[in-house]
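One example copied in:
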Amino acid sequence: MFVDIAKIYVKAGDGGDGIVAFRREKYVPAGGPAGGDGGKGGDVIFVADRELNTLLDFKYKRHYKAQNGERGGPNNMHGKDGEDLIIKVPVGTVIKDAETGEIIADLSREGDRAIVAHGGRGGRGNAHFATSTRQVPRFAEVGEKGDELWVILELKVLADVGLIGYPNVGKSTFLSVATNAKPEIANYPFTTKYPNLGIVYISEGESFVLADIPGLIEGASEGAGLGHQFLRHVERTKVLIHIVDVSGSEGREPVEDFIKINEELKKYSPELAQKPQIVAANKMDLPDAQAYFELFKEEIEKMGYEVYPVSAATGMGVREVLKRAYELLKQQKAAENVEEDAKPRTFVYYKKKDVKPLTIRKENGVYVVEGTVVEKVAKNIVLNDHDSFRYFQNFLNKLGVFDKLREMGIQDGDIVRILDVEFEYYE
């Protein structure tokens, strides 16, 4: 089964908590602070692997989570970092942020990597908070949460040459004759539901990947029929072989078919329509084909395209089309300066996080302080520890929270709340 699109949830590991601990040494107050830092959470990393050719596994498993960092240890021991989660995907996979539609990475080379979710930083142990006036800190930081997001994986087939044309024009038969592929062949409106790939051997050391791409109909650029599924796969090909039923056996007019398919390509992507295109006038073994061929060839050549008479059923003309496609492919690769051994790349994505500005409001007589910065620090406060609470007060004072509260008319004994932390205000 060929699966070319999937939506999955990824979660990076949370950072480990820092701890409160003390050394046991003579003449050192309370043994001296020695709480270690928590380990960093693991990242979620996608890696392009040429051994894979489908996204099928992601249809059955949709949630992926990297390992959390471990808590810090005594004697300033750093907690172990969480292991990164490596997710292998086929070469040609595009990763998108499901919420924004933003393209995170286009993994078009073997070994390409994309770090899409970053592990949380480990919390600092109490050893970090020792000062000349606070020699016995009894508080530490909790680890940060790792990134989490839904991503869309979209596979674009990495074929060198693509077969395009209306359904039932003989693309699958052409592929079976040209390569070692064994596509299903049947008389359905959409014979090929998924791209079929095959290797075309021209001569020793000369070959290319040929793809029979899902049938396209008028209106596909708006999503009709297999629409966008077809167009997504044809995007990466460098040369197109446009197969037309020149016999008109399906009751359609060959020149009209050719024009409509190209109109759909142009609507979807002008660049797509500019790709080199060879026209294979197929089904020449049928009686009506000979009568139509010369007229068809004349009309298509006026538009600037090369036309070859072909019978996929008998193999006539197939080799000539393939050799010409290979010549054009080499020209395209030379023009684009494509390096087959191009070095893999690393993409790094940072999802934009909502940062709440500092705000203070009065609600039912309670002063509620909100904001990303202040809430982050509030999570680490030990209310019954004098040093911890004093550190928190100094932080709020530097942030201007107390000045703002005074402006709002706060009185001694009024309640201030930050997250689930409540305390009475006194000057």
About this structure: Residues 258 and 277 are 11 Å apart (CA to CA). DSSP finds ten helices and 19 strands in the chain. Residues 183-192, 216-228 have pLDDT under 50 and may be disordered.
